[in-house]
Amino acid sequence: MVAKTLFGFEEILAKEIRNLGGGNVVEGVRSVSFIGDIGFMYKANLCLRTAIKIIKPIHSFSVRNENELYKSIYRMDWSEYLTIDTTFAIDTTVKSDNFTHSLYVSQKVKDAIVDKFRDTEGERPNVDVKHPDLRINIHIQKDHCNVSLDSSGRSLHQRGYRVSTNIAPINEVLAAGLLLLSGWDGQCDFLDPMCGSGTMLTEAAMIACNIPVNINRKEFAFEKWDDFDEDLFGKIVESQLKKTREFHHKIIGYDKAPSAVRKAGENIESANLSDYITVERKNFFDTKKPMEGKLHMVFNPPYGERLDRSELDSDFDVEAFYADIGDTLKQEYPGTDAWFITSNLEALKFVGLRPSRKIKVFNSQLESRLVKYVMYEGSKKAKFQNNETE
Description:
Blueprint: E1 2-4, H1 10-20, E2 23-27, E3 31-35, H2 38-47, E4 53-62, H3 66-75, E5 88-95, H4 102-121, E6 134-141, E7 144-150, H5 172-181, E8 189-192, H6 199-208, H7 230-241, E9 251-255, H8 258-270, E10 277-281, E11 295-299, H9 318-332, E12 336-342, E13 357-363, E14 366-375, H10 380-389
Parallel strand pairs: 5-6, 8-9, 8-11, 9-10, 11-12
Antiparallel strand pairs: 1-3, 1-4, 2-3, 4-7, 6-7, 12-14, 13-14
Helix pairs in contact: 2-7, 3-4, 5-6
């Protein structure tokens, strides 16, 4: 099988797959390949936090032109996967000089499948692009074509808990990946000081409690497959739910917008996580660290290229905003590991703190950085002196 992911998440996805029990795990570009049985395919869809899709390769061949493509697809035994009553759809990705239009490739593949059924059965299955029984994935890289079945259906970032959205909400897979990259493991208190609709909070709680990330999802594509084993899937869900754990710290979210606080609350309630997460209407720049001990902070500052300028205050000053982030962390948040993502690399200069880590990631199409600032208890110099005396 192949799990697709976002750029920069390949290593953490590979680790997730190994921890789940997958074999022969190999990292690719925005993908990780692995081996597992049908039960593991169910488990991967249910549990992998940084996967966008789980696809099952069924055939591959060399291809140089549309005629070869048509013939190779036609020669496949599609009766293993489809009947004349099965609706299907084709998703295509092309990275080839020989093929430049993915929609055209999808059309040729559809024609080959339909013609094969007409010639062998006298009837043809129908296409349903919105809600097919079977979703077929075509990937052409140079002169090589991979044919796979999409076991997920809709992207796995659509967890099923989000009922309300804010302006430019962060993708759920991106949020989970940032949390895992930051080392969040649920062993201390957590704060998202600019929580928006609560995605980072929800993903943080699910990691902390080891909750299967797609437990709230309504369906997966594999549930429509002819070989779907409902009993096995039920046992896997039950088994994974038994592995959840209690969380003995606090997860807190702030946002200064009343609408964001309301939406975050609705999403958190939808995810059945209200017992673990508190959301308050506060402007981060007017706050102090709300607890003693270590604090883990991960957030997505709400201003940047993803927001329409009309959504910003007319007098918004991005340099002052980032300077306020640095000042608030420095003065009010000792004992904090603070991580945030930004696509505004120039604005980072105004934070006024030296990041201890910078990780390249993408937020949608925007090249971004996940940066870490360590706020020591007392001065950094004193911290190092204490370490030396120990």
